[in-house]
Amino acid sequence: MKISHIEIIIKGNGFIYPFLKFIIDKIKYLNLVELFKCIAKTMVSQKKVVAASRIAVDIFIILKWLFIIFIWYFGYSNLFLSILVWYLIITNLYTYFYYHIWSDEALKTDNFTKDRIRRRFVNLIIAFAYSIFCFAYLFQFVYFLDIDWNSKNISWINSVMFSFNNSLGGSYSNISPQTDLGSFICGIELFITFIFATLILSRSIPQTDSEK
Length: 212
Description:
The structure is a single chain. The protein is mainly α. It has a domain at 74-203: Helix Hairpins. The chain has 8 helices and 2 strands. A two-stranded antiparallel sheet has the order 1-2. It is globular. The model has no long low-confidence stretch (mean pLDDT 84).
């Protein structure tokens, strides 16, 4: 008797995992970095696709850092920018999760060279730092009324230090959330840090081939 594709999926992996796998795989195409990689791949030969993709990723990382620095320096804040910053926070986490935890390539440890492992740690540090700075921007310009600044100036240094300490579950100069929304935002940052520091970091330490 012929077994349908749906029956094979249900019998093999249930239905929750295939559904979540479908969602996670498709979200990738909503990530702006994929556009950079796609453009880079069209400009080189097949043999240089991997190198071109990595360069495209580096360019995207630099541009998104320049973006947050630019709007922060000039104090720009509106609904569109807030949505864009949240988008960058989410895709920042998703990109690291997908390409270092979820994808087929990430699950293969037989081709893990020392440089690849070092690059993973560099990317982890950059991604974590970017998340901290994005939340610091939000605390200073978007959710400043939801934070009790303890009579301190709402400056970039206080925002960064508060964001950094909050990401680690600590406090900074008695600055704390004073509304439910502020507590919720702080909780999201702490949750993102938990993902970076546990699930992702543990997967970033594979066993390498001694010859490599």
